[in-house]
Amino acid sequence: MVWKEHEFSKNYVILKPHNANVFDLILFILPFGFKKRKLMDCPDGKEDSYRSFADRLIIFVSLLLQILILTIAIPLANLDAFLQKLFNFISFNGTIPQLFFKFVRGETLVQPNKSSPDYTSVVGFTDWRRDLDNSISPDDTFRYYSVLTVMASKLSYESLPFVQSVVNDRWKMKLLGYYNFWNDFQSRATTQAFMFQTTASDPNITVVAFRGTTPLDAYDWQVNVDFSWYDIHGVGRIHSGFMKALGLQKRKGWPKELTPTTTSAPQFAYYTLRQKLIDIAKTNANAREMILQGERMNKDLLLAERLWLPDIWSNFLDTASESVASEATT
């Protein structure tokens, strides 16, 4: 039964756009057409809470947006792949004029190599910067780490060779890990992140950067417009998409520890990063500060850390405002 996937939470609303069509949506918004199990899932006895027109309208809008986004998922993916190949083909051959003259003169054109540190994402072509601003000193803490997190955010969309080249060679910092984290509900890797330390010689600050919404990834946008949520005891109602992306487990919710069934078991964001940060703190007495970067998922990770991670960090630097985390706990 699908509902058993959510039984760890006593209260939840899970929308099901894959089960819906336009006719179902029209019936759903009408007073006599409410059908809980068809388009949404919630605990038995809770369906009457969503019979008001305002509640059904919110659910209707969310489902409609998800359906529309999913219908263009393949064209968007094809467009992203085409643009990435086109932009990299031009970049590997210099500029558009250089590419033109190479073609006219019959010169051999360079084919882009996806394993190259120069192979760039579509997002990367919107901002060519790779180096940090040398005019800003690390002593100017706020400005320096504001710039660093902005650059890390941009870098999170790139491949491992690209990230390694920038972090290790250009920034002279130390890349600790590059991850594709598993989503237990979608049975695929949906969460990308990388971790690095500010300096190799004195790694006192650790930065964790999550990839945000990829502009031409329909599934990323679907998560953003999906209003599904879980009520987590001691925390409150939290967006289901971000919780799933961080490692929420079917039927188990957020167990204290995960027991890998095999050596090749998938990695989940919260559990992997938590252990990595604990290991860093144990091996380096100065490593007492960390920065979480990455749209709104860092807020869910922050909540999880406050609930389950031992208090080993004396200072916690969060690049966004605390308001989202505060609202989620109320």
From TrEMBL:
It comes from Cucumis melo. Gene3D superfamilies: alpha/beta hydrolase (3.40.50.1820). Signal peptide: none annotated. InterPro entries: AB_hydrolase_fold, OBL-like. Keywords: Membrane, Transmembrane, Transmembrane helix. GO terms for molecular function: triacylglycerol lipase activity. This is Uncharacterized protein. One of its GO terms (biological process) is lipid metabolic process. It comes from the Eukaryota. The chain crosses the membrane at residues 57-77.
